[in-house]
Design a protein that fits this description.
Its main location: cytoplasm. It is found in: Cytoplasm. Pfam families: TACO1_YebC_N, Transcrip_reg. By secondary structure, the protein is α+β, with helices and mostly antiparallel strands. It has a 4-stranded antiparallel β-sheet. A 4-stranded antiparallel β-sheet has the order 5-6-4-7, sandwiched between helices. β5 and β6 form a beta hairpin. α2 packs parallel to α4.
Length: about 240
């Protein structure tokens, strides 16, 4: 089990905060997806899997429908997906993904969070090399297929790590970001039930910090995650093992 597993284990404890935060994030993703690929799930593979993710997160059906309708509304101001990269305190690299209808507001807010917490916002693309962009699929654990065989099948489609989540009885697949569509197509065509999917940035190396340093860095991460325009925050700080169950 490699970096992806360690990343998921750490991230499990700090998902997206509260329920409202989850719904806001997913709603934006669904709207952007429906705008780009059309509002019909049968013709939009990414929308299909986002709707499954929403179901898993107990997002009300009317919220999902509202997010899709927003995408085709004449009055809808399109969201722009913007990434921001910078260093937090003590040299921790932080990658921020946003979806916003006002980039001027968003960049001003993100910059202020970095500045107030002793960090600095860098130029776009300056820290991307420190992370590996992956797609992640959660599927119901198949009963009649060995995981070794499943892994061998999926290697050709770009999956490079597979892990079992015994708590949810799911298999978690990590693959190359560019192979997202091919992996989803294979899973759907071969009868595997996808329960959710997401894109993540896994740090290539992790930096050790002291408990005092961690507290300072986490203040910045929390400020970023609380911003309505922010979708995801990734960093290369090693997690505190004592937080795990």
């Amino acid at each position: 089990m490699g970096r992806a597993f360690e990343f998921r284990k750490a991230r499990k404890f700090k998902r997206w905060g509260n329920m409202a935060r989850v719904f806001t994030k997913l709603g934006k993703e669904i709207t952007i997806c429906a705008k780009q690929g059309g509002p019909e799930p049968e013709n939009n593979p990414r929308l299909r899997v986002l709707m499954q993710t929403a179901k898993k997160e107990n997002m009300p059906k009317e919220n999902v429908e509202r997010a899709i309708k927003r995408a085709v509304s004449k009055d809808f101001t399109d969201y722009k997906e913007m990434n921001y990269e910078g260093y937090g305190p003590f040299g921790i690299a932080i990658f921020v993904e946003t979806a916003t209808d006002n980039t001027t507001r968003t960049v001003a807010n993100v910059r202020s969070y970095f500045n107030k917490c002793g960090g600095s916002l860098g130029t776009t693309g300056s820290l991307e090399f420190l992370f590996t962009h992956k797609c992640v699929f959660h599927i119901v654990k198949p009963e009649n297929v060995s995981l070794d065989d499943l892994e061998l099948e999926l290697i050709d489609f770009g999956v490079d790590e597979l892990d079992v989540d015994d708590e949810s009885n799911e298999v978690v697949l990590y693959g190359e970001f560019a192979q997202n569509a091919a992996i989803q197509k294979y899973l759907e065509e071969n009868g595997y039930e996808i329960t959710s999917s997401e894109f993540v940035r896994i740090p290539n190396d992790l930096k050790e910090v002291t408990p005092e340093q961690r507290e300072t860095i986490e203040k910045l991460i929390e400020k970023l995650e609380e911003d309505d325009d922010v979708q995801n925050v990734f960093h290369n700080m090693k997690e505190d093992d004592s937080e795990e169950e």
